[in-house]
Protein 1
Amino acid sequence: MRLVIMGPPGAGKGTQAAMIAEEFSIPHVSTGDIFRKNLKEGTPLGLKAKEYMNKGLLVPDETVVAIVKDRLSDEDCKNGFLLDGFPRTVAQAEALDGVLTDMDMQIDYVLSIDVPKEVLVERAVGRRVCTSCGVTYHVKYNSPSREGLCDACGSELIQREDDREETVARRIEVYLKQTKPLIAYYSEKGLLISIDGGQGIKEVGVQIVKALEK
Ligand code: ADP
Ligand code: AMP
């Protein structure tokens, strides 16, 4: 299965993507995670991406498209993948169509997670991520068993630099302007599945699995 999961920042894409990847045995390809890994390793790509990420802006299309193209050519993507956080502009979506056509592939479904704006800020600001394995928690809705420590590996949890309230507001604006038009783009292609993301983590997961198993 070849999937895209989209939605505003804090909608729950990464949380649901981890579940879907396991359920359907496909790799979870998150462009945000790729940038954060590069930033942690201090690569030129990571340093370039940081300039945009910390301001809540999008990394330029050509940079992101090149990374995704490269990643999709890996062996583990041959039988499917789940793209999380990509595409984020119509230009990226068109580029993705081109890349997949060249590989004789196409997207099966695009999951769009809808969440009211006021909920997004609370979710993103309360997000905590593991500095070592990247697992995501929430201070209120998905808290670890020991405060500030990852259940999976015991490492420290931190707030992402771009999850401060003012940056989250900017990221939501960027989503509305640059990414939301993709809903119409994929709807016209008949690929869109809208998911009510305003429910709890488990309930949203059940909706997604039901929709994909249809
Ligand atoms: P995204 O990848 O869309 O930015 P995440 O999956 O990282 O969003 O979720 C943002 C925050 O909200 C995380 O702290 C996560 O634990 C929490 N979260 C995700 N889905 C839900 C939900 N359905 N209800 C409550 N909190 C959620
Ligand atoms: P995410 O982890 O998906 O919330 O992404 C974090 C940040 O990485 C975004 O706010 C952007 O700065 C950058 N980023 C991730 N994916 C993309 C993309 N497809 N296009 C442009 N920038 C991206």
Protein 2
Amino acid sequence: MPQKLEQIYEGKAKKLFRTDDPNLVIHYFKDDATAFNALKKGTIVDKGIMNNTLSTVIFQYLEKRGVKTHFVKKLSDREMLSKKVQIIPVEVVVRNVLAGSLAKKLGREEGEQLKKPVVEFYYKDDALGDPMVNADHVLAFGWATKQELAAITKSALEVGKLLTAFFAKKGIRLVDFKLEFGRHKGKVLLADEFSPDTSRLWDMKSGEKMDKDRFRRDLGKVEESYSEVVRRVTGK
Ligand code: UDP
């Protein structure tokens, strides 16, 4: 078992620790919640435990179906062992259903089924508020190579296909989600997390939101919704 060493980074929702193996890191999932580029701050009780559980189930599901991820092992309630990656500074959003910033931008109602999945890129820079960019920007600024971008796009669409089916079986509509990728030994791996913090999950019957929009929009029942997602995904 790798030894947990000092903290190397603290993000909005996770802390990252070095281990005695230079190829492995430990993620610690926190309860801190932020929205609107950290203008809104709060706590979602036990979110770290729930997001670690959900990310574990989902990374294992994806790995089994051929998606390369950084996931190695769940170590404890809040800790995940993963391959150390160099994060590519591009957030990849995949949309199946119109919601959030795109609905606002186009002045259309949330909930419109899109005729095909939409892949969007955002340059990871908190100070700039993660501006939207396109594939040419990613290449022109050297954030990823052409090969890496092709691998990222293919993987993001595959994740969308696999997880849409996965959540549908749990009575959940996968509306949209955000992924991050990193480099490990020359290969691109799916990294970061998959959780209700980074996706939109709507109950298929009622249309109720079961994700971070409950926190962002003060809809109440935030913890209850996260734990309902965990219950449906783990069957516990
Ligand atoms: N998202 C995220 N981190 C971000 C921005 C967006 O995880 O910094 C997720 C968000 O939860 C949603 C999807 O990406 O599942 C699309 O978000 P959108 O562009 O609609 O932005 P938002 O409405 O969150 O501002």
